[in-house]
Amino acid sequence: MTRRHQQIADELRELITSGHYPVGAALPSEPELARTHGVARGTVRQAVGALISEGLIGSRQGARSVVLSSTPSQSFSELLSFSQWARANGRDPGGSVISSLRGRATPEEASQLLLTEGDEVLRILRLRTLSGAPVLLERTCYAGWMADAVERVPDDCESVTQRLHDDVGLVFAHGEHRIDALAAGTLEARHLEVRRGSPLLRLCRTTTSPEGRPVETGDDRYRPGSVSFTVRNSALTNPMSRNTGRH
Amino acid sequence: MTRRHQQIADELRELITSGHYPVGAALPSEPELARTHGVARGTVRQAVGALISEGLIGSRQGARSVVLSSTPSQSFSELLSFSQWARANGRDPGGSVISSLRGRATPEEASQLLLTEGDEVLRILRLRTLSGAPVLLERTCYAGWMADAVERVPDDCESVTQRLHDDVGLVFAHGEHRIDALAAGTLEARHLEVRRGSPLLRLCRTTTSPEGRPVETGDDRYRPGSVSFTVRNSALTNPMSRNTGRH
DNA sequence: GAGTGGTCTAGACCACAAT
DNA sequence: TTGTGGTCTAGACCACTCG
């Protein structure tokens, strides 16, 4: 069952990405869209709101909405799953588990996962590749209550996210990501095949379930040049923030 | 004139950041909020929607909304203006113009600013400091039609953004930001007081006016450790995307 | 002044979660 | 089964932009 507002959003998105409404062009008015689609204006506004939060269009009171970008944005699951992202971009993802160890949560891990210090966690270190070339060294710390499910995932499983979804119905719904840069250490140098001290892009993440329960936290270190991240902002919906060095 | 939905959003935000509704807690139901505030449910949903897009709460059909994070997010102007951001965080921003030159747009600049190759642009290189310590080397390319206004801004002006707003009524409304890492070159090493080849965090940005007209593009290179960026995502509103190395 | 998007109301039905 | 959020309608008024 597809929602009415989603159909309209999809249609407008298609018209934008296909170039029918190029960057800088004005969209039809909301009353007009409502008429042509046979819906109430509120439904049109839901669709328009979706495109605004994707950064595709901008709107101001009194003037028609304007196309800001014609690049479609990714789905949340593509952002979270390295494999899904790679496949969607026509790349060939690979990877291997370097280590998998149970341990006790550090204070920082405990605070990220809403646990108490010393609770059991599962730490996994993975190397990710694109077309065989190393791209990303990924450290993940899973909350203890899902350690069993994660350990049942085979080491050579391409998409852990997909596997957890299929096996135990676990889905990721929210994420918080912090991005900075740091120098490669000995471990990163060896696995990512770069020189020690060379620049890496680091993404620290914490992911939670639909109920708001933290599921995993970790940090991903990317070999530069292979991957970048983009964010679209506007005065109304501003998802990104800048932080000082003290975390 | 403050809008009703914004008052409600502010109130809920305050209750969340103050800890009255801690992370993991459930909010009152929408009908209840509508009753207690004496408004229609639609108005409450506007307020709730704002908190969702800020990543403060998450919602699912059938269950009450849940607090995901108690950290308030920044305003858009704080993200765009180095000085405003620094002041809001209790730091002491400074800076100086290293060079300011008019030139002709490169193909890349032209495409970012919706100009044609060879159109006039103004390029400015600035060093930004916090408490006197160098933090950021900022390259900005302004579209020619606003070069005069920018050149009238004194070199030692603390906030260019603020000055442009006050002088010519120019406001920034949308931004696109790409983040990656790279090694410091000779220029960055000298001004940021780091070793050549050491890691830097790079943010490439393009900013547009409320009408959707591109105003400036540029790239900011941060000394690592001093600054990081965070993004909150969810399955519905997903502002961040991961990109391959080909820009 | 005509048209636009922003705000708000007062209903209604549905799909889903919790119990 | 009860209550919740998600969707949708059919109006209305206002602040604003634009020609």
Summarize the structure.
In chain A, 30% of the residues lie in helices and 34% in strands. Chain A is α+β, with helices and mostly antiparallel strands.
Question: How would the blueprint of this fold be written?
Answer:
Two copies of one chain form a homodimer.
Chain A: H1 4-17, H2 30-37, H3 41-53, E1 57-60, E2 63-67, H4 76-80, H5 82-88, E3 93-104, H6 107-113, E4 120-130, E5 133-143, H7 147-151, H8 160-168, E6 174-183, H9 186-192, E7 199-208, E8 214-222, E9 227-234, E10 240-244
Helix pairs in contact in A: 1-3, 2-3
Chain A binds a DNA duplex (19 and 19 nucleotides) through residues 1, 3-5, 29-31, 39-43, 45-46, 48, 59-65.
Fold and architecture overview:
Two copies of one chain form a homodimer. The first copy, chain A, contains nine helices and ten strands. Chain A folds into two domains: 4-67, Arc Repressor Mutant, subunit A (Orthogonal Bundle), CATH 1.10.10; 76-222, Chorismate lyase (3-Layer(aba) Sandwich). Chain A is elongated and about 60 Å long. Chain A has 247 residues and is of the alpha+beta class. The N and C termini of chain A lie far apart (44 Å). A six-stranded antiparallel sheet of chain A has the order 3-4-5-8-7-6. In chain A, strands 1-2 form a two-stranded antiparallel sheet. Helix content of chain A is 30%, strand content 34%. Chain A has helices at residues 4-17, 30-37, 41-53, 76-80, 82-88, 107-113, 147-151, 160-168, 186-192, and strands at 57-60, 63-67, 93-104, 120-130, 133-143, 174-183, 199-208, 214-222, 227-234, 240-244. At the A-B interface, β2, α4, β6, β7 and β9 of A face β2, α4, β6, β7 and β9 of B. β9 of chain A pairs antiparallel with β10 of chain B. Chain A binds a DNA duplex (19 and 19 nucleotides) through α3 and β2.
